[in-house]
Structure formats: C-alpha cells, structure tokens
Amino acid sequence: MSTLQKIAITGKGGVGKTTLAALLAHIYAQEGRNVIAIDADPAGGLAGALGFPPELAENLTPISEMEDLIYERTGAKPGSFGGFFSLNPRVDDIPDRFSILHNGVRLLKLGTLEKGGSGCLCPENALLRALVTHLLLYRGEMLIMDMEAGVEHLGRATAQAVDAMLVVVEPGRRSIEVAERIRELAGDIGLRQLFVVGNKVRTDADRAFIAGQSPLPVVGYLSASPRVIEADLRGMAVYEAAPEAVEEARAIARQLEALAEGAEPEG
Ligand SMILES: Nc1ncnc2c1ncn2[C@@H]1O[C@H](COP(=O)(O)OP(=O)(O)O)[C@@H](O)[C@H]1O
Ligand SMILES: [Mg+2]
Known about the structure:
Blueprint: E1 6-11, H1 17-30, E2 35-40, H2 46-49, H3 54-57, H4 67-74, H5 94-98, E3 100-102, E4 105-109, H6 123-137, E5 142-147, H7 156-161, E6 164-169, H8 173-189, E7 194-201, H9 204-213, E8 218-223, H10 226-234, H11 238-241, H12 243-259
Parallel strand pairs: 1-5, 1-6, 2-4, 2-5, 6-7, 7-8
Antiparallel strand pairs: 3-4
Helix pairs in contact: 1-12, 4-6
The structure holds adenosine-5'-diphosphate and magnesium ion.
C-alpha cells in the first residue's frame, strides 16, 4: 500500500487535466479508497468527466461564489478589501456539506482562487485557502485536485502537502514550455514531487518526443482516443466511454506510486 494520498494535476489548457483527474478519481474509488475530487479550475468540467447526472451537478455551487457562507465564516462580504476579516475561518464542515457524490467519488468545486503573489487579500481567498489547506492536511482521503495551468496560486503550506503534482503535456512544444515554467516555480513554493503525464499520444514518435523534451520524469501516457472525445461530446463519464483509457491511467497510478518518494515499498 502506497502512502501517496494527495495528487494535484496541472498543465496547459486543453491538454487533458480534467480527463486524467476523472480517470484517477474513478480508479482509486473502484479500488476501495475514499476519494475526494476537487475542481479547482475556474474553467470547471470535472463533474461532467466524472459522469455526474445533470440534476446532481446542478447542486454544485463553487465555494468562491457562496456569498452568505463567505460572509458567515470570514465576517466580510466577498470582494471587500481592506476591512477586517478572519484569515482563519472555520472550514472543516464544508467538504461534506457542499460536495456531491456519484459512483464513489465525492466532488467539491472551489471556483476561482486568486494567485498567491498578486492576489487580493479578500475574504473569498481567505476561505478558499483555508479550505484547500484543510483538505490537504486534515482529511484522510485520497484527494485528486484538478487545477488550472500553473502553481502560483498554491501557498507554501498547501504546496508542501501535495504528495505528487502531475503536469499533463501533449506532443507539442507549447505544453512542454508550460511544464518547464511550472518546474521553475515549483521549487520556490516547496513543491517536491513533480511528474509529467503525456496525453493524446498517437505514435511511438509522440512518446519519444515527450520523453525527450519533458523537463520532469514521465510517469506514463494516455493514448489519443476518439472515445475520450466522444465522452466529452455526449456528457458521459470518461471512464465509461473509454475503458482503454482507464487501463492506461491505472498504469500511470501504479508508476506514480512506485516513483513518489516516501511511498512504502511493495509487499
Ligand atoms: N487522450 C485523449 N484523446 C483524445 N481526446 C482527449 C484526450 N484527453 C483529453 N481529450 C480531449 O481534449 C479536450 C480537453 O480535455 P480536458 O481534459 O478538458 O483538458 P483540460 O482540463 O486540461 O483543459 C476534451 O475535449 C477532451 O475530451
Ligand atoms: Mg479542465
């Protein structure tokens, strides 16, 4: 049994972060783990990739948009600057109260988290930061966080609690450049374990390109698959539409467990 528990996923827009997050969340749930999936990309979409029925997904409000909750917990209205508000609001009840559950995966949607350096010192950020810290440090379940490109919005404490950061790339320069930037920033905030996942791979040449260009160790590949696209078009769970992608993602999970530092040896 591996100690790997908190996985975050980043990379350029459109490379397949949400697809990978949904596959990994499903795999760990199927294997009997308690799984919480965190949609931390303002672009969203994780509910769809996880196959949440629309009537359930409707109940999923991003925490950053819950004005009454933000006010109740921080003592200030969202968007207010300069006033007094709690930097240490109570958040421990939020994951269970505001998440939705489907096929063994609990899903929580954060909404927009402002970037650490430039971001505003405002109540909604204080609440989201406290919530992310709580999820990473004080909850015992398997966590899969689907993030936007970049790691700047993670504070040091949260970055250090991430067991593995996966950077998704596709065969092409631009997503590799994004991975390079992420690698440069990672050290500053104390992110320790970063890996690349190659997605939308069609040929051995694509694999060789990613293996040759990746600034980070590669934990595996997902093949380009019309079934994955089909799932997105039809609003189906990617793990139901593309069983071959599930098997590839399972291999990625196993390799990640083997490579992630601090993981206990098998057997
Ligand atoms: N392995 C794949 N094969 C084919 N299409 C893919 C694959 N992975 C992702 N896609 C498609 O690419 C698009 C972007 O994927 P998504 O997971 O939403 O990316 P991101 O979350 O990084 O923006 C979607 O239409 C998705 O279906
Ligand atoms: Mg996405």
